[in-house]
């Protein structure tokens, strides 16, 4: 019985990454609670209207998972629809509604987009 318990405990530690030397560390703040939107990039540069690229895709993904009904194309183009969704999100998060995704907006996007259920929409 003890051998089975020890084997099960070891297996659990390996699966969860709590075992010694298992898992990897990262410094990006985007990696929390299983961030789905990190598939695009873990970089979080300031992005705003007119910008393009993987960071914009990550913003669009996070907005889709945080704001009810935005349904943004995750195309990496920061256009009018993305701008409007950012402003709406910022208002719901109690941030300045400037349409610019800087450190404070990234932090809130990271927090709200990490939930795996739509029961946790911010607005």
UniProtKB/TrEMBL annotation:
Domain of life: Bacteria
Keywords (A to Z) from UniProt: Transferase
Keyword Transferase applies: yes
Peptidoglycan binding-like domain residues: 52-109
Classification via Pfam families: PG_binding_1
A Gene Ontology molecular function term of the record: transferase activity
InterPro entries (alphabetical): Peptidoglycan-bd-like, PGBD-like_sf, PGBDSf
Record-given protein name: Glycosyltransferase
UniProt organism field: Streptomyces pluripotens
